[in-house]
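Table S2 (continued). Query chain:
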Amino acid sequence: MFDNNDSIEEQRRKHFENLNLEDTPSTPSYTYEPTPPPSSEVSVPKKNDKKPKTFLIALFGAIVGALIAIVVGILLLNYTNLIPIRTSYNSSGGTVVNFDGGDATSSVEAVAQVVPNSVVGVSCSVVTTGTNLFGQETQSQGTSIGSGFFVTEDGYIVTNQHVTTDSPQSISISTADNHEYEGKLIWSDSSLDLAIIKVDAHGVQPLTLGDSDNLSVGATVIAIGNPLGLNYSRTVTSGIISAIDRTLVNSQTGKITAEGLIQTDAAINQGNSGGPLVNVKGEVIGINTYKSSVAEGIGFAIPINLFKPIIAEVIESGNFEPRLIGVTGYDPEQAKYILNDQLKNFNEGFYIVSVTDGSAAQKAGLQEGDIIKTIDGKNINTLIQMRTILYNHKIGDKLKVTYQRGDQTIDTELTLEKSS
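Corresponding output:
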């Protein structure tokens, strides 16, 4: 088989020739057969049929090509309309992200190029009171840091009340262009968790306030703020609307903390409070306020529609008086947390638990157990809806109210009063 005088390489070559193998690595090789045609028969057209069929094929191809071109054109037009690219300003001066060309590759990226310029850092020197081990009242000074955003060109800023408190010793505002302003607290309300600050600035770019009454679960949202302090200023996080009309209940007291909230999985952390939650157009739909301390991806924002009339009135007059009708009660979402047999089948309207003596509601004939169905012709299914309607009217305005008492539906009229 081998000649003793053969070299080792020559002996190796003859060995593989006898085995009919190639000198390849040990990795197995695979071959792929082309997919056979449906039929092995080839039909050859007759000579006199060739031109008509060729013409028909060409005509069919031209029609198909034209249709494809039209469809592709439509898709391209729609695609460019879905990508926010540049910024324009609406009639009220607010930022609007448009979708008509540019270099952003997504709606989130486009919003991130524009909206943070209107977001500010809010740093407040505050005094907190407490009680020591001996029952004595104590005071301590600290710094509260949060977020906010411009709502006018002349320096009005919106944030949360729990960032400023009702009587901060000082407020410092930091902007995207590295300016520092001394802020003045114009108005605040702890029950609404809203505060309005003014700085001496002109020509700043305000954000547009959107519509929080028409939100869809699953819609993309972007949260912008200063998580964990000003070192991470104007951080952008994105997610979706996870749910709407959420109620928060204090697990220790069982009392309702907040209601009508927008739930999102966009990351919200300490320091984000007071910052905007915006849609893909850069419109503010909520103010970031709460986050879960025991779970990730669960944050909450207060719907902006509740605050629109408040902001407008404070800017115009320097104050806002909450409108009251003199009832306490629950909407269907809140009723889920109340152990009351009368609320088991309650699924729309506002259920009255008590009526204040001498109030507008009592004067209009409303009683405990009545269910308010509409105010000013608008359906009432959440407490936020009722508040928003009331806040959009002035004290002294007369409103038509429709309510249910047992099997009866009754219309009445009441006059809005200010809080005492």
